[in-house]
Design a protein that fits this description.
By secondary structure, the chain is mainly α. It is 53% helix and 2% strand.
Length: 421
Amino acid sequence: MPTSRTARLTGPALTLALGASLLVNTPSLADGDEPHPHHEHSTASSQVALDWQRTSIRTVYTENASTVPAGALYLGFASLAMNEAARRSERAHSASSEAAVAVAAHDVLATYFPASAANLDADLSASLGDIADGNAKARGMAKGARAADRLIATRADDGRDDTSIVYAKPPAIGVWQPAPGGSMLVPWVGFVDPLVVRHIATAPGPEDLSSAEWAADYDETRRLGAAVGSERTAEQTATALFFNSNAATMLTEGVLRWLDDHMMSLRRTTQLFAAMHAAEADSIIAAWRQKFDVGFWRPVQAVALADLDGNSATTPQPGWTPLLPTPPYSEYVSGHAATTSPAAEVIRHMLGDDTTLTLHSYNTNSDRTYASISAIEADALNSRIWGGLHFRAAMDDGYAMGHSTAREVLRRLADRCWSED
């Protein structure tokens, strides 16, 4: 095991199946694109993409109550189809990009969420109603339908909803166990085919229970993450509660609010969301595979059984409970980290780290404005330790995986060229 946090994150212990190319700068999503929204040339309105991103969130999470990890897959599907529709219609010149994007999003969402078909049909009618009738509109609609069909075809038999995958590890010190009568939430997510990357990322695993690093991580979460008697400050408590919201949508909604005031071209907008959501999905797949394979115990279990972990520097604390409710899956690596970090990395690459975003938490029904993407990541990372849900290794390694996955997605989307219509 590594002897320091720096070695853990930057040395050979962090094994990435994505390859060493992830550690260098990657190209932006399209040749000639600037990292900031300047010099836009397309006359197509990006409003249709913003509308359908909001519709995707509503469909996946509000109307169909998808779990956060499973829902992220479908956000990725819809965003990739919208981006492909925009790319192909823009190249055709005589096709409406707005019509293509709307139809692509509609068809993907309606396929996977048929219960929302009526609402999606109404949304599509509204989008198309703003576009002048004619050949360009018809051609755009056709291209959008084909982009959706291609996406859906690539996801056939991709491992989603495989109920034969069941988490079951024999009880042991350091091994997470579901609550009595319970089970791991959506264990199949870790076995789904990735959306963009060739191979999902891996990480070195949690700290060895006999190590000084484990004792330090353990003590930090025990002291700062407790529901009662914690050493947390009031601000740390507020941060933990704020970020205990849907991590798959928090940054998306923040970017949508930013784009309401900083409109980019339709093509650039669909690129941004395709990269964000594909990177989130592929990072979540990687995280869920780690959770399934490693099965490391949660702080609430570790604190109760610290006298049995073989480390004289850890001591149990009877009655210890975390500030936040413990979710039904293992600790390593953090799903929150693997969801937040890839989206943040894409935003940093395409808009700049100094982009100011206002985030909304549905958990606290409040807003926070951050002056940089790095500041968001710092608070989001620490929030899961202050909430008593994670140890620092799971957060740091989850962020490393998420950043690397995002860089690979950006590179592959820049190089991708699907067969022509």
